[in-house]
Design brief:
Length: 189
């Protein structure tokens, strides 16, 4: 049985920054719930990441498959003890402020019949986890904006571990400049 719900949020960052933040492997360790992230499989259109969540004795390994369709469609499928969780995110730049994005995420919880009565409680757990992750991401995005402007040169540096780097370069390379009024990357990368 599938329980679906939507989470909408506004992020004060450019479309390239928000997408690059999704794929930045280095920042995953900043999230309080994620431990030991590892890239386990990498194909041009699909990547698999494995990490540990929770505290002992309830610690468990999560396998997450990620697909990226530029410029802002991200599909994530994660394993969970109650069944697979799918998150389909659509990220779009604001019409009025290019340093702001909207993210609409449609969550699908594939629940066994015994978990169906708990679907609203599970939805609230996912919503709270999403709010916490957003707060942690906003701290990172704000700090990066102060240091590097609204571009993504820093994310695309050769030593930076980022998923879908080639797709990000191909998608956002047409936007030049890294200053606060530019949403892209410079031609230096």
């Amino acid at each position: 049985m599938i329980h679906r719900f939507t989470i909408d949020k506004i992020v004060p960052a450019s479309l390239p920054q928000v997408v690059a933040n999704y794929f930045d492997m280095e920042h995953l360790v900043i999230h309080s719930a994620i431990h030991n992230p590892k890239l386990t499989s990498s194909q041009p259109d699909e990547i698999e990441v494995q990490y540990t969540v929770g505290r002992w004795p309830a610690r468990r390994t999560v396998r997450q498959t990620i697909r990226y369709n530029p410029p802002g469609d991200i599909i994530q499928v994660m394993s969970s003890p109650i069944g697979p969780v799918t998150a389909e995110s659509k990220i779009a730049a604001s019409d009025t402020d290019k340093a702001q994005c909207t993210i609409c995420t449609r969550i699908s919880l594939d629940l066994p019949i015994w978990a169906w009565p708990m679907r609203r409680m599970l939805e609230q757990i996912v919503r709270r986890a999403n709010q916490k992750t957003l707060a942690e991401d906003l701290a990172i995005l704000t700090r990066r904006q102060r240091l590097f402007g609204s571009g993504i040169d820093d994310y695309l540096a050769p030593a930076q571990p980022i998923l879908f780097k080639d797709k990000l370069l191909a998608t956002f390379a047409g936007n030049s400049g890294t200053g606060p009024d530019n949403a892209g990357i410079s031609d230096k990368v």
